[in-house]
Amino acid sequence: MSQLRSLAGALRSSSQWMRGQVGSGRRVFDPRRNCSSGAAEPSLAACSSSYVVEMYYAWLEDHKNVHESWDAYFRNAQASSSEETGEKHLSALLQGRAMSQTPAMSEKVVEDHLAVHTLIRAYQVRGHHVARLDPLGILTADLDSFVPSDLITSIDKLGSYGLEESDLDKSFQLPLTTFIGGNESTLPLREIIHRLETSYCGHTGVEFMFINNMEQCQWIRQKFETPGIMMFSDREKRTLLARLVRSTRFEDFLARKWSSEKRFGLEGCEVLIPALKMIIDKSSEAGIESVIMGMPHRGRLNVLANVVRKDLDQIFCQFDPKLEAADEGSGDVKYHLGMYHERINRETDKNITLSLMANPSHLEAVDPVVQGKTKAEQFYGGDTEGRRVMSILMHGDAAFAGQGVVYETFHLSELPSYTTHGTIHVVVNNQIGFTTDPRMARSSPYPTDVARVVNAPIFHVNADDPEAVMYVCKVAAEWRNTFNKDVVIDLVCYRRFGHNEMDEPMFTQPLMYKQIRKQEHVLKKYADKLISEGVVTLQEFEVCVSLYGNLITVSLCKHLFHSCCFPDFFKLDGEPKSMSCPSTGLNEEVLRHIGEVASSVPLKDFAIHSGLSRILRGRADMVAKRTVDWALAEYVAFGSLLKDGIHVRLSGQDVERGTFSHRHHVLHDQEVDKRFCIPMNHLWPNQALYTVCNSSLSEYGVLGFELGFAMASPNALVCWEAQFGDFQNTAQCIIDQFISAGQAKWVRHNGIVLLLPHGMEGMGPEHSSARPERFLQMSKDDPDRYPLIIFTPKSLLRLPEARSSFDEMITGTKFLRIIPDGGPASNHPEKVKRVIFCTGKVYYELAKERKQLKLEEDVAIVRLEQISPFPFDLIKAEVEKYSNAELIWCQEEHKNMGYYDYIRPRFLTVRSKNPIWYVGRDPAAAPATGNKFTHLAELKRFLDTAFNLEAFKGRSY
């Protein structure tokens, strides 16, 4: 029997066997031959014993005739017996000539055990499909009501395994890949089926067999198969009941008190509150000190009240009709707001910090933001393995399946510069999206299937079984702490009311809501259960309900007699600095030192590319001549901040080298794989760390991540660079919902910097415009520090004229909001006929044209380096300086794009008596032409116009 058990162990290694490659030119066995195809992946346990015999004899001829997994097995089987008898014993067994059996009997024993092993695997792989997950009892949690034929639900299906009813009371050897036996190595088939159904087909369904890691699969099997493992103590049950009371009674109170207000209550999934608290308890027990959470609006007020522990009177204040727009935190609706709170975890007596991130109605937009903030807290706290800081993300089922940013965020989960070392995802699965049935909302069987792309285990659980929910939450927290990987809890529940409390769900889901109206509340069901078990008495339960009711009453009175006062929603690492322009210059010795490091390779015996050697020599030549181009200026800016102890993080697609091969902040050894050097981290002995990291091919997810990272320290420099400025289009949600309005809506400073390559260079409509008009439309000219948008150059990166002298960067210098004309025109401003205001790349084309036309004394060109906040004071001085000149705004963008609509009314404020004329491309639908000839013709046309005033007199402005 021990040899048979070993044979079964080999048969279980199907995932490894399936991934093997067959050779050629020799007798090699196809792993799929003679195997059934009913499983999600073909199972070795379904292979016939005659095929195993054939394989064994082939192995005897030449060990390379079989897959390496079978080679290892046959070798181990020999080693388990003596050198002399091992091979003969195994051979006899596989041939069916065991000493005490006839060949037919021996083969039947093997086949029956293989059948039982296949049965066990079938439950492990697909048992979740028949689990009783829907609290309403009318739907399946997935989109397929078909019961897999290889899952035993009745005696008459035994025949599909070659088993008979008489086999139910026979004992079978259990494989090593199951824990249903506890301390027993054999069980009767009837008991095997019972224990499998208890583990995998009850109120919990487990998806994990797609994970290609044996240790992780075994860990999960042990957590769900071990007999009696899901037991709770009386104390734990009473704690769970108390938490259910708080969750349920909070919603009841709001429903009674503000019945006509939208609140997106949690009715139907009240168990979410004790679920989150269980996750936090177990995480705190494992050493977690800070938890960053993100969630949609459903249940947010309840989470704020009973998980984060926001004062109830502050929540009630949000329902006050007298709340004014000027009040802090009233820039968005109450069920979008977040909070930061540090408190004692009563289960562990440890301090824990809870942050619930504010989130708009773009439901999953907060996912990468939470991950970024989590990563930042881990980074600044030296938590390199995520042992002290973690994240929890809550989702709705329809959004989890439908929103692409969920997929983008999952793909950040194990990238070195983005991993947060495991996130616990909790899906509030209402089995409906607003009014849309699941079959119309997704193509995947479950809303959680997106998590399979990163091999995250998925625990489906019936939300009306609180103890089952608590158990999967406990396991999820332990999984995250053990393996530092994502895990998903699918809380299959229902929505007792409509999408919001004003909505009528019977319009679209009449049968579901007829059942919901009859559905007993989970609190009553669980209270009755504990009373019947003698865990609590009816009087104790009523006291618990009364105590929370008293707490609500006291908080309501406090709200009525005190004005609203909103504390800071989040902890800030220092206060953000003003946008005023102090001196930003550097000592020339520092400038030169940074330039020299940027021109060298700090590591010894480091082989760099010959082309890069030329680039470094070019940098060294610039340093010797006391000049910098854009790339070297960026190097100097970053390096000087690092010297002052300020962390710099640059993230985005291909930022390490730079899309235009100009940056080269990471050097790669040409002879040693994976050996690289970041010279900027070798500038000073005690400098801050420079993080530069290529991102996944994502804009929405990565920009959200960097925004979250910047939230942790508003004075750090956190930059996201788009590959081309146009690509910020797909991150527009983050820009609109978080970057533009974050301060006004959520009282939250953020210093994120967006670097957007911009310029009309004949590269077509997808690689030209970063859409400056959009950002200008969203700005409000506030001089304090806000997110910074920089339209970075492309062709100017290597333009000889686009360089600066050290003299413009040494001590005493500062950022220039405008760059006045420094040529002949400025010497006799009263004689200047025309002043051209512009910004960006077009200046160099204008300057070149002016020189060719010999109009340097007649035309002045003034550059706006800061568009918003608009430099009214400096523009006014320039306009007064050239008092006799006509004013022109010249841009290369089309008239309905770019800067003109923004600057025109502001110039009228400065000089109302005369207009500022527009020169540029005509209005268009596309940002740029895709035809190079047309591009050059448009450029020539507006340059001619810019230096011929008569050509545009009389035109609209």
From TrEMBL:
Native organism: Cyprinus carpio (Common carp)
Major subcellular location class: mitochondrion
Name this protein carries in UniProt: 2-oxoglutarate dehydrogenase complex component E1
Names of required cofactors: Mg(2+); thiamine diphosphate
Location(s) in or outside the cell: Mitochondrion; Nucleus
Pfam families (alphabetical): 2-oxogl_dehyd_N, E1_dh, OxoGdeHyase_C, Transket_pyr
InterPro entries in alphabetical order: 2-oxogl_dehyd_N, 2oxoglutarate_DH_E1, DH_E1, KGD_C_sf, ODO-1/KGD_C, THDP-binding, Transketolase-like_Pyr-bd
Catalyses which reaction(s): N(6)-[(R)-lipoyl]-L-lysyl-[protein] + 2-oxoglutarate + H(+) = N(6)-[(R)-S(8)-succinyldihydrolipoyl]-L-lysyl-[protein] + CO2
PANTHER family: 2-OXOGLUTARATE DEHYDROGENASE (PTHR23152), 2-OXOGLUTARATE DEHYDROGENASE-LIKE, MITOCHONDRIAL (PTHR23152:SF5)
GO cellular component, one term: nucleus
Keyword field: Calcium, Glycolysis, Isopeptide bond, Magnesium, Metal-binding, Mitochondrion, Nucleus, Oxidoreductase, Thiamine pyrophosphate, Transit peptide, Ubl conjugation
Homology family: Belongs to the alpha-ketoglutarate dehydrogenase family.
Domain Transketolase-like pyrimidine-binding: 628-799
Gene3D superfamilies: 3.40.50.12470, 3.40.50.970, Multifunctional 2-oxoglutarate metabolism enzyme, C-terminal domain, TPP helical domain
